[in-house]
Design goal:
about 450 residues; mainly alpha; Growth Hormone, Chain: A; 2 strands; membrane; MFS_trans_sf; transmembrane; transmembrane transporter activity; Major facilitator superfamily (MFS) profile domain-containing protein
């Protein structure tokens, strides 16, 4: 409750928050990328059923930040909410590790498996309060700390991508070689380490007081003031577009992995785990972040006079195009894979998935960072956790929409339709083309329905 001493708190000291971001990202993606294959191979779900379950779970764990935003901004504050949520997350991972170990040893534990998954989903909401809490450590009125605060969002995105890369390269490999339970025990240990490091910096943090009342009500009250309706309308248009984007992005966790599982995974005498191709997503993010910041922005700044280089809408629009192109690549690859299998019984090499993952990663640099920056800019200072939660919420709705599309498609096309149990007898390429059509429609609406003056 005492005023923070600038020389002893905040600023660049509490980089421990970034450590927790890395650990949280690694553990989440370590679970996500092994999940669909475990459901198919060990729990006996169909390809469509596993994709639906993963989409629903992704939706729930991206919905929980809205609950966290309410608790954080109105009751506990961001530090306590982050710590409590991360402990729930740790408990869920420990339960999931136990349930998978039981299943691998032929002990029925499906109910415990799904309970643990949704405990993880509840705890994962701490990511929103952690993002806002990290930004609280910098004084926007101090020129030096204001520059650090701007860099913080880049470093938080970098930390998320680093955790994703470590998960795909390390945890997925462990899961493929030693079993999913071994991978989960690693994830559990990693998040515990992150919590301990984050807690160790408590005396160096700056703590913003929580406000009374409902943060969502405050947002609506703000929109009822004259002049704010256009801002809320602009936020709504952008947010709705992000839902379609997230629907396409969800495929990297499910259908991209199922596609890879039926491709040739022997490269140079080494077996490549199907989910490990996802490593090209974060690698692409890390490379394109440097290219964007050091090359594209300076060039565009000189050309347009805009301090950002690109306007936020140009940046997001480019990201939408790239994600749609990724779905088109996946569709073309699947059509080629099916043709080769049915004509000559040959397997297409899994490395042909690299272009679609690179495009997904590149689109994140443009769209995801642009979306967070847009929402953060439009939100009042006391609603920044809500702004972060809205970005997660779009991912949640997109995941639910993905599951809905898979379910409807399977229902309409039948058991041996587009996404059957054996994808060699289906037409997954048609489903990818459906996503391409949605992406094109979303991009056209994005351009036609809203023009925003930055």
């Amino acid at each position: 409750g005492s005023p923070a001493v600038a020389s002893k708190t905040g600023g660049s000291r509490p980089s421990t928050a970034l450590v927790l971001i890395v650990c949280g990202s690694l553990s989440l993606y370590g679970v996500s990328y092994n999940l669909v294959l475990f459901m198919v191979s060990k729990l006996g779900l169909s390809n469509a059923g596993a994709a639906i379950q993963v989409s629903i779970w992704n939706g729930v764990h991206d919905l929980s930040p809205l609950l966290v935003a309410y608790v954080s901004d109105s009751h506990l504050g961001r530090f306590k909410t982050t710590l409590g949520g991360s402990l729930i997350y740790f408990f869920g991972l420990a339960l999931l590790s136990l349930s998978v170990l039981l299943v691998e040893n032929k002990v029925p534990a499906t109910w415990l498996f799904f309970v643990a998954l949704y405990v993880i989903a509840l705890g994962k909401g701490f990511a929103a309060s952690l993002l806002a809490f990290g930004a609280d450590q910098f004084d926007g009125k101090d020129p030096v700390e204001a520059a650090w605060k701007s860099s913080y969002f880049n470093w938080s995105n970098f930390s998320t991508s680093l955790g994703l890369l470590l998960a795909v390269v390390g945890v997925v490999y462990i899961g493929d070689r030693l079993g999913f339970s071994s991978a989960l025990f690693v994830c559990t240990g990693v998040i515990l380490f992150g919590i301990m490091v984050f807690s160790s910096g408590a005396k160096f943090y700056r703590y913003a007081p929580s406000l009374t009342g409902n943060p969502f009500a405050r947002l609506l009250q703000r929109g009822s003031h004259k002049g704010d309706h256009s801002n809320l309308a602009g936020i709504l248009v952008v947010w709705l577009g992000s839902v379609v984007y997230e629907t396409m992005k969800t495929q990297t966790f499910s259908l991209f992995v199922e596609q890879a599982a039926l491709m040739g995974t022997i490269v140079g005498g080494f077996r490549v785990p199907p989910a490990s191709l996802n490593s090209f997503d974060p690698i692409s993010v890390l490379v394109w972040m440097v290219v964007y910041d050091r090359v594209l922005v300076p060039v565009m700044r000189r050309a347009t006079g805009n301090s950002r280089g690109f306007t936020l809408f140009q940046r997001m629009g480019a990201g939408l195009v790239m994600m749609t192109a990724a779905m088109a690549c996946a569709a073309v690859l699947e059509a080629s894979r099916l043709a080769g299998f049915h004509r000559e019984r040959v397997q297409t090499n899994v490395l042909w998935q690299i272009p679609q993952f690179v495009l997904v990663g590149c689109s994140k640099v443009f769209y995801c960072v642009g979306l967070i920056e847009f929402l953060y800019d439009q939100a009042p200072e006391n609603l920044r956790t809500v702004a972060a939660a809205m970005a997660f919420f779009s991912s949640s709705v997109g995941s639910f929409l993905s599951g809905f599309l898979v379910s409807i498609t399977s229902g309409i096309t039948g058991e041996q339709g587009w996404i059957p149990r054996d994808l060699n007898n289906g037409h997954l390429d048609y489903f990818f083309w459906l996503l391409v059509a949605l992406g094109i429609a979303n991009w056209v609406i994005f351009l036609a329905s809203y023009k925003f003056k930055e």
